[in-house]
């Protein structure tokens, strides 16, 4: 099985189910291609912090979800080992946020992705980077 076949198989698996937390938060997968994902979410009243803006953890969850889709859409299924986020502007109730993640380096030992979160006006709300390490199937692990 080639790299393209594995990516297609991984994409089919990723799009065949919705994680309960993702459903609960109202995130929606819009696009998934090898190494790229676009996920959206409307900010609701229950997503707000004490300042009345979107809680940073909600924005981070949206970024993480897009990151996970993009990173796992390639040859090597993986888990996050690092995530860094810069919050650049507030998001308010009723705004639709869009997280776009692109894998900028994919390898057998480490992969790096960039995640951009914008609002419906195209303004940059947050910028993140994430690192993943590949996981092996249990049967492939050495004891």
Describe the fold and architecture.
- The protein has helices at 3-15, 20-25, 56-71, and strands at 28-33, 36-42, 78-87, 96-105, 111-118, 124-134.
- It has 143 residues and is an alpha+beta fold.
- The chain has a single domain (3-140), classed as Thiol Ester Dehydrase, Chain A (Roll).
- β5 and β6 form a beta hairpin.
- The longest helix has 16 residues, at 56-71.
- 29% of the residues are buried.
- The model has no long low-confidence stretch (mean pLDDT 89).
Q: Short summary of the structure?
A:
This protein has helices spanning 3-15, 20-25, 56-71, and strands at residues 28-33, 36-42, 78-87, 96-105, 111-118, 124-134. It has 143 residues and is an alpha+beta fold. The protein has one domain (3-140): Hotdog Thioesterase (Thiol Ester Dehydrase, Chain A, Roll), CATH 3.10.129.10.
Mean pLDDT: 89
Q: List low-confidence stretches.
A: none
CATH class: Alpha Beta
Main beta sheet strand tally, sense and closure = 6 strands, antiparallel
Count of individual domains: 1
Which architecture per CATH?
Answer: Roll
* Count of DSSP strands: 6
Helix content: 10-25%
Strand content: 35-45%
The CATH superfamily bears the name: Hotdog Thioesterase
Order of helices and strands: HHEEHEEEE
Quickly list its features.
about 140 residues; alpha+beta; globular; six-stranded antiparallel β-sheet; Thiol Ester Dehydrase, Chain A
Topology:
Blueprint: H1 3-15, H2 20-25, E1 28-33, E2 36-42, H3 56-71, E3 78-87, E4 96-105, E5 111-118, E6 124-134
Antiparallel strand pairs: 1-2, 2-4, 3-6, 4-5, 5-6
């Amino acid at each position: 099985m080639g790299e393209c076949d594995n990516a297609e198989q991984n994409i089919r698996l990723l799009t065949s189910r919705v994680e309960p937390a993702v459903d609960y938060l109202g995130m929606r997968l819009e696009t998934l291609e090898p190494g790229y994902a676009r996920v959206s979410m409307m900010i609701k009243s229950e997503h707000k912090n004490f300042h009345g803006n979107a809680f940073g953890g909600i924005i981070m969850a949206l970024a993480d979800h897009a990151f996970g889709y993009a990173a796992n859409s390639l040859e090597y299924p993986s888990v996050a080992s690092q995530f860094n986020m810069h919050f650049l502007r507030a998001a308010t109730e009723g705004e639709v946020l869009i997280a776009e993640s692109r894998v900028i380096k994919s390898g057998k030992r480490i992969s790096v992705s960039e995640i951009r979160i914008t609002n419906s006006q195209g303004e940059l709300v947050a910028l993140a980077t994430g690192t993943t390490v590949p996981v092996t199937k249990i049967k492939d692990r050495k004891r």
